[in-house]
């Protein structure tokens, strides 16, 4: 089994729901309906140990899953899970079409310009679909925000941990 840090974050348990041990989840995945379906297995860290929990029942309320988990039968059981990260093994990820990337695959990638200038490493991917940007940590300077657009991010190569950008005039200076 993969190490906990290699597991992929897919959500957080926001809070208990009701008195029968259900929990409300804040999803961190584009595949919430599949990831949080009855019969699926999710993983949480309990007392420092990765623990598998099987989803017995699931429904959505205001785009958030409400889960019934095997072994979680009371509000007290559910309270113990409050704020806990939900993760899955990396080999359970859905394959994405060419040109699409998971955020966690981009985090840590080195960002360089087409002429070889090193900018920093990706710290986060922020924004809504269609308006996302890379948050790039630039050695002791203010973070650089780079729009995640093919016209700027001309080569994205997570396997080699590298993003090559062709920034328009003034973009890098705008963040200074």
Structure description:
This protein is mainly beta. It is built from 4 helices and 12 strands. It has a 6-stranded antiparallel beta sheet. A 6-stranded mixed beta sheet has the order 10-9-8-7-12-11. The longest helix is centred in the middle third of the chain and has 5 residues. The chain is elongated and about 60 Å long. The termini are far apart. The mean pLDDT is 90.
Alpha carbon gap, first and last residue: 43 Å
Tell me the overall shape.
Answer: elongated
What are the low-pLDDT stretches, counting only 5+ consecutive residues below 50?
none
Output the strand order for the largest sheet: 3-4-5-2-1-6
Q: Classify the oligomer.
A: single chain
Biggest sheet overview:
6 strands, antiparallel
Whole-angstrom Rg: 19 Å
Counting helices, strands and paired strands, the structural category is mainly beta
| Helical fraction | under 10%
Task: Note the beta-strand portion.
Answer: 35-45%
Average pLDDT rating: 90
Summarize the structure.
The protein is mostly beta strands and 176 residues long. 10% of the residues lie in helices and 43% in strands. A hairpin with a 4-residue loop joins strand 11 and strand 12 (162-165).
């Amino acid at each position: 089994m993969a190490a906990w840090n290699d597991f992929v974050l897919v959500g957080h348990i926001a809070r208990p729901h009701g008195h029968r041990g259900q929990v409300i989840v804040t999803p961190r995945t584009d595949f919430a309906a599949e990831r949080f379906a009855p019969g699926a297995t999710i993983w949480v860290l309990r007392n420092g140990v990765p623990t598998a929990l099987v989803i017995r029942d699931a429904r959505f309320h205001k785009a958030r899953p409400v889960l019934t988990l095997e072994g979680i039968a009371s509000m007290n059981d559910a309270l113990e899970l409050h704020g806990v990260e939900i993760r899955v093994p990396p080999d359970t990820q859905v394959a994405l079409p060419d040109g699409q990337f998971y955020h966690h695959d981009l985090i840590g990638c080195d960002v360089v310009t087409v002429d070889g200038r090193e900018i920093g490493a990706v710290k986060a991917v922020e924004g809504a679909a269609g308006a996302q940007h890379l948050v790039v940590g630039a050695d002791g300077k203010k973070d650089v925000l780079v729009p995640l657009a093919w016209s700027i991010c001309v080569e994205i190569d997570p396997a080699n941990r590298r993003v090559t950008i062709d920034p328009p005039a003034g973009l890098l200076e705008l963040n200074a």
